[in-house]
Design a protein that fits this description.
The protein is α+β, with helices and mostly antiparallel strands and 291 residues long. Helix content is 19%, strand content 29%. It has 6 helices and 15 strands. The strands form 3 sheets. The chain has a 7-stranded mixed sheet with strand order 14-4-11-12-13-10-15. A hairpin with a 2-residue loop joins β1 and β2. The longest helix has 16 residues. The protein starts with 6 loop residues before the first strand and ends in a 13-residue tail after the last strand.
Length: 291
């Protein structure tokens, strides 16, 4: 029987995307690389635990869950989470940023300064700019200010991001146009916390990093892995947690978060035998109220 591995997810390094495996092994991903694996026959997807600790009951979890955690481990994982506002005493400085994912899709968010742009790569931000830098709670208040005053959301659905990646404006300047206008409006607002320093508009573009220029439209996305199911394809692009794989002349998106919790084995076949949800035309909801 082939050795089985458990995937910890997709990570972005200075050299590009990597699949990380339990135990620390990493697999670098480059354009044109064949990605092929199967979920072990007879296997079940198990909870990945919380904060570096295994699930005490090895609970089974849904194949479609992107978190791969049981209810108790999900609660523990968020118990010390900036995203869940449970770390108000974090002394690290935080960036406030604006991120653009496609026409009409701009969000505001925060990330620890020490992480640099890693958070933006993990979210699949096509371009972004820093907006301010300061203590955590000041960054949070600024995030709330933009949401209330400019109706800028703090989340963009992944389905919307995927729907537009192959049809983005052709130049970095065009892609950053909305971002620049919103940045100017944001820094002109009153009510900024005094401890948060405004940062100048300096857009960073990730289109080349993600392999998006010339990307063929995806026909669907992997809904879930199943025991005995196989995923196979040539890597043509990657953004956030998503791999765009070409198989038989068709591009399918694999959200690598659905890989976690499974025992995965190498395969020789080129088939794609897991459930795939076909995309419908114009499957995107553009936000209103930015301008």
């Amino acid at each position: 029987m082939a050795q089985a591995w458990r995937c910890s997810g997709l990570r972005w390094s200075a050299d590009g995307p990597e699949l990380v495996w339990d135990g620390g092994r990493r697999s670098a991903l480059t354009w044109g690389k064949r990605v092929a694996f199967g979920a072990a026959d007879g296997g079940v997807r198990q909870c990945v635990g919380a904060r570096g600790h295994p699930c005490p009951v090895r609970a089974g979890v849904s194949g479609r869950s992107t978190g791969a955690r049981c209810e108790e481990c999900a609660r523990l994982d968020r118990a010390h989470s900036v995203a869940a506002d449970t770390m108000a005493d974090d002394p690290r400085p935080y960036h406030v940023y604006l991120a653009w994912f496609g026409p009409g899709m701009v969000k505001v968010g925060i990330t620890a300064e020490e992480r640099g742009s890693a958070r933006l790569l993990e979210q699949g931000a096509v371009c972004f700019s820093w907006l301010g830098l300061g203590p955590l709670m000041a960054a949070r208040r600024t995030e709330e200010l933009l949401r209330a005053a400019l109706r800028v959301p703090d989340r963009i659905p992944y389905a919307d991001k995927r729907a537009v990646r192959s049809d983005l404006p052709g130049t970095a300047a065009e892609r950053a146009a909305e971002l620049g206008g919103l940045h100017a409006r944001a820094v002109a607002l009153g009510g900024w916390p005094e401890s948060l320093a405004r940062e100048p508009y300096r857009p960073v573009d990730h289109a080349e990093v993600f392999g998006l220029p010339g990307l063929a439209p995806a026909v669907g996305e992997v809904r879930e892995l199943v025991a005995g199911g196989v995923i196979s394809g040539q890597l043509v692009a990657a953004a956030g947690p998503d791999l765009h794989l070409e198989n038989g002349g068709r591009v399918v998106v694999l959200d690598t978060r659905v890989m976690t919790g499974w025992q995965l084995v190498p395969v020789a076949t080129g088939e794609l035998t897991v459930p795939v949800r076909e995309f419908k035309k114009a499957e995107v909801s553009v936000q209103d109220g930015l301008f």
